[in-house]
Amino acid sequence: MENNQKYALITGGSAGIGFELAKLFAADKYNLVLVALEEQELANAAAQLRQQGVEVITMAKDLFDRQNAYAVYDEVKAKGIQIDVLVNDAGQGAYGLFKDNDIERELLIIDLNIASLVILTKLFVQDMVARNEGKILNLASIASQTPGPWQAVYHATKAFVLSFSEGIRYELKDHNISVTALQPGATDTDFFAKADMLDAKIVQDKSSLSDPADVAKDGYEALMAGTDKVVSGFKNKAMMAMSNVTPETTLAGMMDQIQKPVDKDKE
Q: Any stretches that span the bilayer, and where are they (predicted)?
């Protein structure tokens, strides 16, 4: 399928799952608008993606500041670009016990993972409704369906993303707009470093981490098929199936065991 005039906007598109998604869009000849924090990372990603013969526009924006979500939309409109696919990939976590974590850091996580995602979705959805066409991919997580000791705020933000995605998907079903939630598990990206989570048990065994390219492929295929949500990876699918029949307190205890620091004595 030729998509030379189509554009996908990807937040967090310079690295990790976002960059792997960008490569898949480029392979299908979607032009790209990449939004991320670091200009050099964006430049490096864009140079690689342009080799596939697509246009790549970069926007270095700090989406921890929700006002920059409005700025992204304004810049896109000023360039006269129509966004056919919106990918809300940008997100971070704050590791540690809630009682100890810095509240300002946690509020920034909420602004990034929820507020900026909602703003971008609101603005681009209104354009999609006007032309009766569009696709949205939101990065949820298997964390969206489990309580998260040591990452309580992050898990809660992803629960919001999943619920929000499912709610607006139904609202938009008569407007030829599909909304897909991608639910990866722990993935081999820089997420853990940014969350100061490198001491967590779940991070120590690299073999247990998913390949971001595999996660992106699962998400891309689900998006293009118009699927409502997809859990990436057999192990994660099994975990989600088990979570549906496991008491919340038991799930919380299980997450505590895999997310607490390796040197943390069980209290």
A: none
Tell me the two tokens of residue 120. 């971008």
For residue 52, is it within any domain?
yes
Overall average pLDDT of the 57-65 stretch = 97
pTM for the whole thing? 0.88
pLDDT in tens, 103-124: 999 999 999 999 999 999 999 9
Asked whether residue 203 is domain-assigned, the answer is: yes
Helix, strand, or coil (residue 34)? strand
Asked whether the beta carbons of 154 and 265 are under 8 A apart, the reply is no
| 146 inside domain | yes
Q: What is the DSSP string of 151-213?
A: -HHHHHHHHHHHHHHHHHHHHTGGGTEEEEEEE--SBSSTHHHHTT-TTBHHHH-GGGSBPHH
